[in-house]
């Protein structure tokens, strides 16, 4: 039973320390950027007292998604690459729709 904590400690070291390099650092930065979109959305919703998806959500999605795609390409992970690439299309489209809506509203003012 005593070997379980030692084995777990060895696994943690192998996963989080031994293989740590520039790409892993980029991956953590990318994941943090991508996760910030949820924090932004949550804070905006709390302020409005209703569910809100602010424009910053889509910018964090796009930036974090691009960094995660770069990371996935470096890791040669086809599932991760496909998922992030599709997400970038959706985030870009949402930003495009928001920009079009704002242009239309500016014309009517």
TrEMBL record:
<dbReference type="Pfam" id="PF07578">
    <property type="entry name" value="LAB_N"/>
</dbReference>
<dbReference type="InterPro" id="IPR011499">
    <property type="entry name" value="Lipid_A_biosynth_N"/>
</dbReference>
<feature type="transmembrane region" description="Helical">
    <location>
        <begin position="79"/>
        <end position="99"/>
    </location>
</feature>
<keyword id="KW-1133">Transmembrane helix</keyword>
<feature type="transmembrane region" description="Helical">
    <location>
        <begin position="52"/>
        <end position="73"/>
    </location>
</feature>
<feature type="domain" description="Lipid A biosynthesis N-terminal">
    <location>
        <begin position="26"/>
        <end position="97"/>
    </location>
</feature>
<dbReference type="GO" id="GO:0008915">
    <property type="term" value="F:lipid-A-disaccharide synthase activity"/>
</dbReference>
<dbReference type="GO" id="GO:0016020">
    <property type="term" value="C:membrane"/>
</dbReference>
<keyword id="KW-0472">Membrane</keyword>
<keyword id="KW-0812">Transmembrane</keyword>
<protein>
    <recommendedName>
        <fullName>Lipid A biosynthesis N-terminal domain-containing protein</fullName>
    </recommendedName>
</protein>
<dbReference type="InterPro" id="IPR014546">
    <property type="entry name" value="UCP028440_lipidA_biosyn"/>
</dbReference>
<dbReference type="GO" id="GO:0009245">
    <property type="term" value="P:lipid A biosynthetic process"/>
</dbReference>
């Amino acid at each position: 039973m005593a070997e379980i904590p030692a084995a777990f400690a060895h696994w943690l070291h192998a996963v989080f320390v031994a293989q740590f390099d520039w790409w892993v650092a980029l991956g953590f930065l990318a994941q943090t950027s991508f996760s910030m979109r949820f924090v932004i959305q949550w804070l905006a919703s709390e302020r409005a007292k209703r569910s809100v998806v602010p424009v910053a959500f889509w910018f964090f999605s796009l930036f974090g998604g691009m960094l995660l795609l770069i990371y996935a390409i470096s890791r040669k992970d086809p599932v991760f690459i496909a998922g992030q690439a599709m997400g970038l299309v959706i985030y870009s489209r949402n930003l495009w729709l928001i920009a079009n809506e704002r242009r239309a509203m500016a014309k009517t003012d």
